[in-house]
Predict the structure.
Amino acid sequence: MELSGRHILASQKSLPSDRDFQATNPVANQLLEPKFSEGCSAEVDYAVNQAANDFDLFRKIAPAKRGEFLEAIATELLALKTPLIHRCNLETGLPLPRLEGELARTTNQLKIFAEILKGSSFYKIQIDRALPERNPVPKPDIRLTHIPVGPVVVFGASNFPLAFSVAGGDTASAFAAGCPVIVKGHPSHPGTSEIAGSAIQQAVEKCGLPKGIFSLIQGSENHVGEDLVKHPKIKAVAFTGSQAGGRALFNIAASRPEPIPVFAEMGSVNPLFILPGALLNRGAVIAQKYVESITLGVGQFCTNPGLLFVLKSPDLDGFLTSIVEELKQIKPAPMLNLRIKKNFLARVSRLSTSPEVVFSGGDYLHEDHGCLVLPSLFKTDAATFLAQENLSEEVFGPAAIIVECSSIDEMMATADHLEGQLTATVHAEPNEENTCGKLFSILEKKAGRLLLNDFPTGVEVCSAMNHGGPYPATTDSRWTSVGSAAMNRFLRPICYQNFTQPLLPEELKD
Ligand code: NAP
């Protein structure tokens, strides 16, 4: 498929622009053709107005037809599979098998939402019938349903170029709710964004839907995203990325004359605790799986378990040796882009001045290897961890800190010290349930997903999934960005009091 380098505005290609940017191949460190237009305020305004104009038409079509639209997007993505995965591999350096898996996840989540739209459970209907004879005051008929909030801005994520970008989970859940979507493409993978965007464009056309329900605006500068969030006709924002980015957009949204919700997923250090019985009985297996987890996707997952807490014990040396042996097997791999590698180097270099370096990324801790990196592992004690704030910050990439605790009480204190997290994990044996329960009782207040004897990377897309957590993991811990409940972010409750049957929405009629 030939890339145009243009935006998709209300499902149509934009005119060429005089300002542009290019993607870089992180493996070859070379610019990739073609040049992509930089978005401007006029294009933002046009896209949002088209979305707002077509909102009424889109929200009123039967949910099952919206489901057909989601299925059509999945079909169009699969029809473009070869160019999509090829371009994505060039722009991200992510290996083809990973991208094939990610595309399967992307089409699967579209189909999950399509399935939900065949039923009526997403309306979460409540009906309180009238009691005209009630004394002293008669009770009116009151019926509750949920309606879409309006046009939504989705920010493409660098680390999930398919599953959390143009046609990813945020877009799928907003469309499922009945909201038009304007995507701000991530500047690291504009070609991937254009191909996925053209799949949505085709689906809009084939399903005969109003064109304004989808736009993709590309850009490498903050102002496009800022203009989108400030636009008065935008009603919600979905974001996955850095804490700085998510917080900046949240602040902009909160200071609008009409504040709007920003569902920002900003990452986490995902603490993992190993109790002594588990270390004794399963240390070598945990070491192997832990290294797999922190190096998966070159460590660029928001669920990367970057902090590991263990008790000081004679078994610890053997465990550390097993981890180091596993780390030695890891080959250099490219990070998504040079900016992310520079952030990674800065964080690792700060850590190298304080905790003990257990394993070093060596030569790959320099920019002369382009985007390539090797993992790094550090060790510190609980007292230092509790005293040094920077040790609890996310390191986005293949790095982790092992925190040695002198007692279970100190381990509990480290858990209590943590900020909000997406996940928290405990490895324990059945005879350690008492301690494990106490630890989870602290961790319940910290994280959105708790894991027992498992690893947090790999987030299942299903109805019971919660991918969220207290700040700073997200800007609102009550919502998930993965799984079928993700569409609830873009629905709002509305109740109808004393309505006659003909005037009630279809789903609320007797
Ligand atoms: P990012 O810098 O947060 O950018 C993500 C998107 O948000 C981009 O489209 C960017 O647009 C936009 N954006 C960021 N700040 C903005 C602002 N102030 N105003 C308007 N738009 C803004 O994330 P990234 O590029 O993916 O990676 C950078 C760092 O983010 C990584 O090193 C890592 O620390 C973190 N990260 C975390 C996760 C996670 O899941 N926790 C995922 C990815 C990245 P522009 O490019 O146009 O500025």
Remarks:
- The chain is about 40% helix and 20% strand.
- The first strand starts at residue 8 and ends at 9.
- The chain has a mean pLDDT of 96.
- Residues 155, 157-159, 184, 186-187, 219-222, 224-226, 240-242, 245, 248-249, 266-267, 302, 340, 343, 396 surround NAP (CB under 6 Å).
